[in-house]
Fold this protein.
Amino acid sequence: MRISKIELFHVRPRWTFLKMSTDEGLVGWGEAVLEARSRSVEMAVKELEPHLIGQDPRRIEHLWQGMYRGGFYRGGPILLSAISGLEQAMWDILGKSLGTPVYQLLGGAVRSRIRMYKGVGGIVADEAYTMSKRLRAEGFTMVKTGLEGMAHLIESPSWIARQVDRIERIREAIGPDCELAIDFHGKVSPALAIQLIKALEPIHPAFIEEPCLPENVDAMVTIARSTTVPIATGERLFTKWAFREVLEKQAAVIVQPDLAHCGGIMEGKKIAAMAETYYAGFASHNPLGPINLAASLQLAANVPNFVCQEYASEGEGYLKQPFVVKDGYIELPTGPGLGIEVDEEALQDKLYSGDWDIPRWFHADDGSVADF
């Protein structure tokens, strides 16, 4: 079996589906995209393509090492997002060639269903309350929300009070038996993060995600040591090497690699195994499309230290059989490979032809620029 063709389908600004075809007629799917850098990832895939055409897609580890180590420079979000999409497609082909789900090839399932969580939007507290109430009624046992807008390096007591009030309203809506995670998105400084987490402790968050930017691990260590609330991070970290320092310094107790960015399914498994040795949980990140969700579910089925799976879409209009979330869970997939069938005919009406993603810069009134 040999790889004969690689195609990309931009179906949304944040979703790019990768189709890998073989000379034996088998097809594998992955997601090769990076928020605000879709075109860059596409070019990275095209650069890798000549090295993959004619190769056996079932030699996943061999091809991964070649793509990652083949150039003088390694890593980074662009290259790893390209590799991740290609690697997901290879696993899909391998599973289909053997007629078995990917999780069986990883060692088998350790659970019969997979716990899911969804994001709560709404800047206004009442909007967040209504959305949270609905998700709880649908059976979710965990929800996640973010902060209101951007933040300066230091903020007023009223700003902190607004964040706490909104999140208290979400807690009121979901009750004490539903877990509530809070994503800071790296928007706040370490000093402000410590202040804010202290104010949020009475709400008992399940975890605080990206309390500060991930480049300085020691800054996150300082935050982690200042609170009893679990710290989570990982969506902007790539490969096992980036997670090594986070785990060794115990900067976080929940790792969140995104399988569309970190290096793919096997790299995610290696990261989860590293986390297991530090008694840390694994909760793969996914605000992307249904193919990345499919890949994430395969790994979630297999990883013993799995916590909960984020998702944004069940795949309605993109998959022939969209995922079904019942009482906050998705049943263990049973189909071969990633367990999905992409509706290629439906994709043709959804191809994204508008402007490419543009990086978002948030400017404060004083002219300073705040990170996302």
Summary: The chain has two domains: 3-99, 103-338. The CA atoms of residues 217 and 246 lie 6 Å apart. DSSP finds twelve helices and 14 strands in the chain.
